[in-house]
Prior knowledge:
By secondary structure, this protein is of the alpha+beta class. The protein has two helices and four strands; from the N terminus they run βαββαβ.
Amino acid sequence: MAHYTLSVPDMSCSHCARRITEALQRIIDEKDFRVLLEEKQVQVNTENLEDVLAALDDAGYTASVVA
């Protein structure tokens, strides 16, 4: 499984973090991701990054991989 750090600049409050958590819980196990509100990042372990990005987009958040 690959590890990614995603920048989510639209994440600004605990409500955002909760929505992102709920979106990701639908597609991957909770132990495979961390939502970091203060850093506006999500750390995720996944084999399918496209599904993660699509889930975030569906929840209303734009994410990109941090280099």
